[in-house]
Amino acid sequence: MARYTGPKGRINRRLQTAIYESAGALKALDKRGNQPPGMHTRFRRPSNYGQALMEKQKIKHYYGLGERQLRRYFDKATRQKGNTGANLLMLCEKRIDNVIRMVGLCKTRPQARQGVAHGHFLVNGAKMDRPSYQVRPGDVISIRPKGNLLRYYQTVRESGVEGEGIDWVSFDTEKLTATVQGAPSAEDISLPVDANTVVEFLSR
């Protein structure tokens, strides 16, 4: 799942949500979002199990998680105080690849994940190559001081890519740096998903 390379438009249509943000995937959802992928098919009312599975798939595809990674996040969320579903999604929101996408340094989360994995970004001045890194208050995310990287991400910004805006991270558009000022709350979760259904599913 973390390295899904298949047709992203099919996933958007299957889950009826803009999970993948590439132009083709969004176009597929816009034009044929009322039809599931495949020939001569139509949506059927899913069972409770099917609905829960669909909600889980939304989280996995949206944040680029594998099954084991999602299970680790779930185990961690259950040990935290508060609502387990909200805790699970907040752990996903704090991933560095998600933050980079949210501030507008990349067009999509897969692109942000690839950039981090290739060592394009620094956290507090040190190279970071783990897309799953959980950002913390005070962390400063910047681009490695290499001319080609700086030009590339500046071009991405100038191409009209905009961040979705998150109150707990400030972004300097001139220096292209993001500073984590706090932690996300339940209101900051960017994915429309029934997390409690996912919690029930993972608790079986």
Mean pLDDT, rounded to whole units? 87
User: What amount of the residues lies in strands?
Assistant: 5-15%
Overall structural class, as computed from helix and strand content, comes to: alpha+beta
The CATH superfamily of the largest domain bears the name: RNA-binding S4 domain
Helix content: 40-55%
CATH class of the largest domain: Alpha Beta
Can you list the strand order of the major beta sheet? Answer: 2-1-3-5-4
Order of helices and strands: HHHHHHHEEEHEEH
Architecture of the largest domain in CATH?
A: Roll
Domain unit count: 3
CA gyration radius, whole angstroms: 18 Å
The largest sheet is: 5 strands, antiparallel
The CATH topology of the largest domain turns out to be: Structural Genomics Hypothetical 15.5 Kd Protein In mrcA-pckA Intergenic Region, Chain A
Low-confidence stretches: none
Beginning-to-end CA distance, first to last residue: 21 Å
Q: Give the tally of β-strands.
A: 5
Helix segment count? 9
Describe this structure as you would to a colleague.
GO terms for molecular function: rRNA binding; structural constituent of ribosome. Part of the 30S ribosomal subunit. Contacts protein S5. The interaction surface between S4 and S5 is involved in control of translational fidelity. Residues 94-155 form the RNA-binding S4 domain. One of its GO terms (cellular component) is small ribosomal subunit. By secondary structure, the chain is of the alpha+beta class. It has 3 domains: 1-44, no CATH class; 49-57 and 64-94 and 191-204, Ribosomal protein S4/S9, N-terminal domain (Ribosomal Protein S4 Delta 41, Chain A, domain 1, Orthogonal Bundle); 98-183, Roll (Structural Genomics Hypothetical 15.5 Kd Protein In mrcA-pckA Intergenic Region, Chain A), CATH 3.10.290. It contains 9 helices and 5 strands, in the order αααααααβββαββα. It has a 5-stranded antiparallel β-sheet with strand order 2-1-3-5-4. A hairpin with a 2-residue loop joins β1 and β2. α5 (84-93) crosses α9 (195-202) and α6 (96-102) packs across α7. The longest helix is centred in the first third of the chain and has 16 residues, at 48-63. The radius of gyration is 18 Å and the shape is globular.
